[in-house]
Structure formats: C-alpha cells, structure tokens
Amino acid sequence: xxxxxxxxxxxxxxxxxxxxxxxxxxxxxxxxxxxxxxxxxxxxxxxxxxxxxxxxxxxxxxxxxxxxxxxxxxxxxxxxxxxxxxxxxxxxxxxxxxxxxxxxxxxxxxxxxxxxxxxxxxxxxxxxxxxxxxxxxxxxxxxxxxxxxxxxxxxxxxxxxxxxxxxxxxxxxxxxxxxxxxxxxxxxxxxxxxxxxxxxxxxxxxxxxxxxxxxxxxxxxxxxxxxxxxxxxxxxxxxxxxxxxxxxxxxxxxxxxxxxxxxxxxxxxxxxxxxxxxxxxxxxxxxxxxxxxxxxxxxxxxxxxxxxxxxxxxxxxxxxxxxxxxxxxxxxxxxxxxxxxxxxxxxxxxxxxxxxxxxx
Length: 360
Known about the structure:
It is built from 8 helices and 11 strands. The protein is α+β, with helices and mostly antiparallel strands. The protein has 2 domains: 3-99; 110-351, 2-Layer Sandwich (Alpha-Beta Plaits), CATH 3.30.70.1660. The protein has an 8-stranded mixed β-sheet with strand order 2-3-1-5-4-9-10-11. It is globular, with a radius of gyration of 26 Å. The two termini are 17 Å apart.
C-alpha cells in the first residue's frame, strides 16, 4: 500500500473537510478559535497528501503514454517519468514528516533561563551575549521578549537572566537550545591577549497552562521578603520580594522587582513551567528507556555547542555541524541555520524509529 493510501490519510482528509465546513458555517467565539487552530494544524498535512496524490495521478497518465505505441510520445513520457519519480520521492518524505507525532508544546511560548557557568566575569559577559542573541532572534521572528528577573555581574553581563519569549511556535524553534554553551575568546578583561574558555547554561521551558499542571494550594508556600537593591528611597521600605516554594518537589522561585503583585504572578508562571518541564522530562525518559534512544530536548549537563571567536566558527557537537558564521549567529540572523539542522536531525531519528516500529 502506498503512503497516501494509508487509512490514516483518509481520516485526516475527512477531519479537515469537517473542520472546514464548520468554519464556513459562521461559528464565532471560542469555537471559531478552536476550529481555526485545528485547521492550521491539519492544513500542511492535507496539502502534502493532495500534492502526492496529484503527482501519482500524473504518473498514471505518463505510464499510459509510455505504452501508447507512439515512439515520440514514449520518449517524452520517459523524461517526464524520471522527473515525476524524484518529485514523488520528495513529496513522500514531506508527508512522512507531516505524519510524525507532534510535540504538544511546540506552539507554546517559553521561559528562557541563562546562567553564567565556569569562567567568572567572562562567563557572565557570555551569558549577556547569549541573551542578546536570543533577543535579536526573537525580534526577527516577531516574538515578544520580556525580562522576568536579572542578576548582573560586577563587570557587566549576567550571573543569571530569566525572560519569557512569547509568540507562535517559539518552543518548536528554541527547544534544542537547552544545554551548556561554551565560548573560546580573548576576554575583555584580558590584557595579554590569551584565549580563555568559559561557559553558560541555557534552559528553555515551555510555558504551562493551568490545565497542564495540577498545583494544590496546600502544596504551595508563599513568603514575602524585603527587596535588596543598589539603594534609593524604595529599597527596604516594602516587603515586595516573593518566594514561592513547591513543597512536594522542593522547587523554589524568587522574584524581587518592585511590584509584589507582578512578582507573585511572574514567580507562579515560572513555577508552573518548571513543573510542566519536569513532567515532560519524566515522560521523555520513559520513552527513551522503552525505545533505547533519547527523545526530547537532551541532557542539559552536556556541552552542546562551542563558539570560537578567533576562528569565527560555531560548532554544534550533537550533530557535528560547524558553521563559519559566528557574527551572523551571535546577531541572531544565522541562528536559523543551526536550529533547522537540529530539527532535521531530530526528525530523521523519529523517522528511523518509526521505520523500525513498522518493520517489527
């Protein structure tokens, strides 16, 4: 049975037609939002199915020409058949990608946490540079970046910075950025021109909705504290800082900006994202054990990428890809090439797993 004749294909087409008909009936409100989202999710697969079926129908016509008895027409048909075979192969691959299981979090916004690792002041400066890279990348994609909290280092940069990035499909693009990022360069503080190696860690958490994570009131402890800062009339005058502790897991989130209300909302948002990420990682580990391969965003304790400034290169160690486009990548403009390669590698592994499952 050819791929486009699989029963799953007919179910997708039937569902798409039903959703399209409902949208055309004039639904409004929440129903319209839900149907529009479903339509957008189904449309790429439907387009791939229809394109593949059209190419196969065209191939049937070409085969008829080959056996028509007309020598000139058969010569033209052979050339067209070769082209069609390549197109069908490409369309089948595209359809297989569309039929892969979707990560439910791919369309979500994220919380990005960047922390200076080994390397002292230089690590903090690198953490700043990474944040600017993601900030510019987000701007290029039309996403909104909002800093939730930041701890600045003495010589500049960040010991830690946490930001939310909001928009469509953010997690799908950034989920492979979690891990240890290493930099090799001459620090701004180095007078002798020696190359130093330092690192920063990046964690990308999909934002959770309340329906994703059940948090009982008795499992939460909220403490208010006095904020500390650089001085001024507002410092140590109000208990605006908020610390939320999730008792069952021991997770603690602290916010210390001026507004206690905003601190509470921001801290709760991060706590939900962390709990949701814990559940996702647990499920990923279970699937990995069952299939004997890693599924998900990877082990954050491992070094994933090196940025070598003297040579102008960036190397992603997970896929053995090196690009001599460091300036473009740090500016956010060249990051898509790295991310697209990581997505393609992930999809190839899923396809291989699916092929093994089908063979079994």
